[in-house]
Amino acid sequence: MNFCSMDFILFAIILAVLYYVVRPSGRWVVLLAGSLVFFAFGGWKYLLYAVAMSAVFFCAANMIDKINDRQSQLDRKQDKEEWAQLAGKSKRILVITIVLVVGNLVLNKYFNLLGELINNISAYLGGSGDIVLWDIALPLGLSYYTFSGLGYILDVYWKRYRSQRNYAKFLLYIVYFPHIIQGPIERYGLLGNQFFDEAKIRFDGERIRNALVWMGYGYFKKLFVADRISIFVNGVMAEPKGTAGSIQLFAILLSAAWIYADFSGYMDIAKGVSMIFGIEINQNFNHPFLSKSIPEWWRRWHMSLSSWWKDYIYMPMATSLRFISTCAKVKKKFGKNVGKFFKDAVPLLLIWTTTGLWHGTGATYLAWGLYFSLIFICSVTFAPAMTKLLQKLHINADSKCFHLFQIIRTYLLFCVGRLLTVPGSLRYTGSIVKNMFTNFNVNAIFSGSVYEKYGICIQELGFMFVGIAVIIIADCIEEYKKKTISQWVFDRNWFVRSVIYAVVIVAIVVFGIYGVDFSMEGFAYQDF
Predict the structure, then answer these.
(1) Which among 5, 23, 207, 513 is most buried, taking Cβ atoms within 10 Å?
(2) For residues 104 and 151, what is the distance between their CA atoms, to the nearest angstrom?
(3) Which of 148, 169, 203 is the last residue before a domain boundary?
(4) Contact 421, 364 (CB under 8 A)
(5) Are residues 80 and 153 in the same domain?
(6) Nearest one of 3, 454, 491 to 228, comparing CA atoms
């Protein structure tokens, strides 16, 4: 069910009415029923898939929690043997669960790629190249509830909190519909208990008004900005031949704005919908366009994923005794500098290669992951040298001009990453880069007929830039005024607020990209 469809709007209204008709103690049941209905709209098999996966996490976590209870009753020194047996049993349950769910995720994401590879090999060897294989459609929200479930079972294993003993309540945490399509990846300790906090979920008119502002802003980002940019970007990428290099460069630069408006737009809608029910979901974006470095960009972009990788993969690896011992051996054999480089580089290389493969299959996303791992490694390795260089050149690193330079540099570095993935293949990426040097044709940027060729007119281009400007201004207000966009709106007098509401509604309803002849764009990260 697309968040931008009338079906979803009607679904959300009906669910909200039912939610507040029921007593606070039973409202979590309404949310669970609504979330299951939401899943069912995507397909019953996806609903059954999510229920089965959640059952695996639920059973495994409870078995581990019971072992933790038994261990807590023992004296680790006096009952050393029994304590070790229980620890081994708990670890086995954890490892088996991780292998099962990660294997399931890999199978779903890469089985079709394996089929294509087999067919290509078959064709190369003289076969038909059309071996019939099972075509797997990725289950709705699979990556997001897999990561949420893995985080949950690991936290129980590490004794950060107790397991949930009520399966229906745990199922709600897994399938809660506002965050299931594109995240954020929620932690049980932050989300799980909110559903049952009766003081938090009471009807609050002020909170609902705030929620509607967030939803309106999200729909503005998606329908007025993101889908308008996507028409142009997809049009340019669909024409690999005969396109000026300047237009291809322009499309790549705009694609970064598109992915941000699309992804953060979804998050704003999800945040607003969840606020209607009194539930707060994690912040997933913190104005990445204002970042001064790529590491800072990724701390501000898809924050729930970045923190998940850090807490459940990077830190366990970087602090493991085996890895620390390996780093010590490297340091002893090759010296202090090599040892430090090894300690910094290996976890970053692993994280970003894995992140690239999670984002997509094939060489493009592997290259994307390696590209960002290289930037991170260089940032860590050469940070002291860069500081000394700035001092020698007498550049004030705290000046506004230098900060602006850093922001632009970071955006362009991110766009290089987009250049690796947006075209769809590294061969096409190479041809675009070549075209930028051999057929740049700067005049094409100022030709209105060129844009019409790719699906938009000059007026649409103007709307596009107005929308991007609004997002940048809103980000600057939140970043430098320390106010959320909803707080800033509510601080205006009634007349200014009314004008803002009217302009946003007109932008969405009148100038938004949708209609009978338009195939509504799904959200960028919904198939992960």
Answers:
(1) 513
(2) 16
(3) 203
(4) yes
(5) yes
(6) 454
Give the domain extent around 259: 204-281+425-520
Domain count across the chain: 2
The answer to whether the beta carbons of residues 226 and 265 sit under 8 Å apart is yes
Q: Look up residue 402 and give its two tokens.
A: 């230098």
pLDDT tens, residue order, the chain (528 aa): 788 889 999 999 999 999 999 999 999 999 999 999 998 888 888 888 899 999 999 999 999 999 999 988 888 777 888 888 998 999 999 999 999 999 988 887 776 566 566 655 655 566 655 555 555 556 778 888 999 999 999 999 999 999 999 999 999 999 999 988 887 999 998 898 899 988 888 999 999 999 999 999 999 999 999 999 999 999 999 887 778 999 999 999 999 999 999 999 999 999 999 999 999 999 899 999 999 999 999 999 999 999 999 999 988 988 898 999 999 999 999 998 888 889 989 999 989 988 888 887 778 998 999 999 999 999 988 888 898 999 998 899 889 999 999 999 999 999 999 999 999 889 999 999 999 999 888 888 888 777 888 888 888 889 999 999 999 999 999 999 888 888 999 999 999 999 999 999 999 998 888 754 455 556 655 555
Rounded Cα gap, residues 365 and 161, in angstroms: 36
Q: How far is CA 263 from the centre of its chain?
A: 7
Domain identity same for 60 and 188: yes
CA distance 137 to 112: 9
Of 262, 260, 280, the closest CA to residue 178 belongs to 280
Residue 385 domain-assigned? no
Token pair in block for residue 363: 């060489």
Residues 125 and 35 in one domain: yes
DSSP string spanning 364-427? HHHHHHHHHHHHHHHHHHHHHHHHHHHHHTT--TTSHHHHHHHHHHHHHHHHHHHHHHTTSSHH
**Residue 75: DSSP 8-state:** -
Distance CA 462, CA 522 (A): 23
Strands (E), 91-157: none
Tokens 């050469």 belong to 382
One-letter amino acid identity for 183? G
How far apart are alpha carbons 334 and 350 in whole angstroms?
A: 22
Q: Is the peptide bond before 184 cis (omega within 30 degrees of 0)?
A: yes
3-class secondary structure, 135: coil
234 and 184 share one domain: no
Q: In this structure, are 105 and 234 located in the same domain?
A: no
Residue 9 has phi, psi (to 5 degrees) of -60, -45
Residue 354 domain flag: no
Q: Which of 178, 203, 228 is the last residue of a domain?
A: 203
On whether both 121 and 33 belong to a single domain, the answer is yes
